Amino acid sequence: MFVLIAKKKRASWSPLRGLLKSADHFASAFMHETEKKLKVLFEIPDFGFYWQKDRQSDIYPLSKTDALDARKHTLVVAPTGAGKTDFLLKRCRGRVFYTLPFQASINAMYERIKNTVPNEDIRLLHATSKIVVKNRIDEQILQPLPGSAVKVLTPHQLAAMIFGTSGFESVMLDVQGTDVILDEIHTYSDYSRAMVIEIVKMLLRLDCRVHIGTATMPSVLYDELLKILGGKNRSMKSNLPMKY
Description:
Blueprint: H1 2-8, H2 15-30, H3 34-38, E1 73-77, H4 84-90, E2 96-99, H5 103-116, E3 122-125, H6 129-132, H7 137-142, E4 150-153, H8 160-163, H9 168-175, E5 179-183, H10 190-205, E6 209-214, H11 219-228, E7 235-239
Parallel strand pairs: 1-6, 1-7, 2-4, 2-5, 3-4, 5-6
Helix pairs in contact: 2-9
C-alpha cells in the first residue's frame, strides 16, 4: 500500500506547505497585530512616477521606448545612463522583485523606490539589510516574509528555489506570478551567472514575468537567455548602441 501511494506522489513543490510556513512565521512575528499588517500585503505597486512625461528625454533613449509592448519578458542591453531602471519598472504589471548584485546598489535602489512609490510595503533583503533599517523594527521583521509590493534583493536570496534549502516553498509561493527584474547581470562571476540562469528557468516555471537589464553582455549569454525566455516572440529585446 505504501509503495503504491509513494509512486503516485509527484516530484514537485508543495504550495500548501509554503502557505502554512508563511502563515506560521507571519503570525509568530506579529502576534496580535497580524490582521493590521495583512492589510498592506500583496498590493500591486504604483509606478505612476516613472510614467510622468517630464521623465522622457532624448538624453535617456529608453525613456522614449514603448514599455507597453505586449510580450511578456524583457531583455535590455543598454549603456549606463540610458534609463534602464525606469524602463524595467514600467515593464512590470504586478508585484516586483528587483535583484541587484551588490549591497550598496540594493540600498540605493531601495531608497529610490521607497521615495517614488506610494505603497507602504517596500522592502530590501540582503545579508546585512537589518542594519539599514535598524530603527524600524517592523521592517526588520517583514524583510524575509512574503507579500511585499516591491522587494529589492540579491539573486542569492532567490536561490533557495533551485537549491531546495529551508523555506524554499515559501519563497516560491511569494514569487509565483510576479515581475522579477534581474539588473546588472554582467557583473556576476561565472558561477553566479550559472545560478542566475537556473533561477530564470525556475521563474518561468512559476509563471513570472522576467525582465533582464545590463550594460553589456557576452553574445553567448545573451543568446542563451533569449532562448530560455522564448525567443523574440515572447520577449521584448532592446539593444542600444554604446555612445561615446
